[in-house]
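Lecture 7, part B: from sequences to assemblies.

Below are the input chains for today's worked example.
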Amino acid sequence: MNPGKLNHRIKFSRLVSTQNESLGAEVSFEPVVVSDTDTPDTTWGDLRPPRYNDQLALEAGASVLNGDRVLKIRYRNSFQPTKDMMFEDVQQAQKYTVHAILPYDEKKKNDVFKDREFIYILGKKRE
Amino acid sequence: MGPLDVVTLAQAKIYLKVDFADDDTLIESIIGSAINYVEQATSYRLYTRTEYKHSDATYDVDIFQYPITSVQVQTIDGTVVTWPEIKIDPIRTKVIFLRVPFNNAWRSNQGFGDGLDNGYGYFSGYSASLPLYKIAIECGYSNTLGATYPISDIPFAILQAVKTIIVNMYENRDTSAESIPSNVTQELQSYSRNPMF
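Predicted structure of the full complex, as structure tokens:
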């Protein structure tokens, strides 16, 4: 892995619904801590279009559309992505909802750090 | 002073695009390894320390470490010896052990000469092949104010090589097959002060 490929600033947020007495359920996004920096909700990631293997890794029936992207970030103990999260490519101001966490690693099968090196997230493009 | 004064943990993490604390200890040890690798390959010393070489005063001693602040010859028990000629040169520092005549009282009193430890010499003018002297070499770049060789004088290419090796060691820490990139080893060769290479 060339760290230079982790060249997108990615901001994570989580869907939170609160009950409002007059309006009913109110949905908002609150930031998720992913890094130990001054901008804790932002980290470095690699964004690429999904490949055929990514589709194979998905559950049956799940589809991949044109604008979807696979996000690759470094594995860290303090952060586990969930499907109620959303991430944003800060430079492009493009938001994606977390559709699936892909259960594989690009590295070799006998790799002792397998699944502990990177996290792969399939993001659905939000209009 | 230590390796982390040359490349800080924060600098390495920026270069690695690591923005969490899980691997801090690992990255710190990798910084030390990478700097050691570069120092072995070039004979540059990137942070200050005292290194020792030993000699029996039979041959002159070449010192390849760079940069050198001072060189001192001592006996094994630490007494400073002044008779060797020390030439600190930017190209090659050399300790010249002037040949003391065998009958010199100072030398014969040391009780060495023919290796039999009896005070008599077998080969005139040569001492026994025992490490009689140690050469204390103060070397390395320093981060103290007003230092002759400040840490900012380290060539950028060497610092870049350290960072590239840090990335290589971090990304391939789980495999044994990966080697240091050839462009880095070639770059380091151009800085090598060892005449063998």
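Note for the exam: Residues 3-125 of chain A form a domain with the Thrombin, subunit H fold (CATH 2.40.10.270). Keep this in mind when comparing with the next example.
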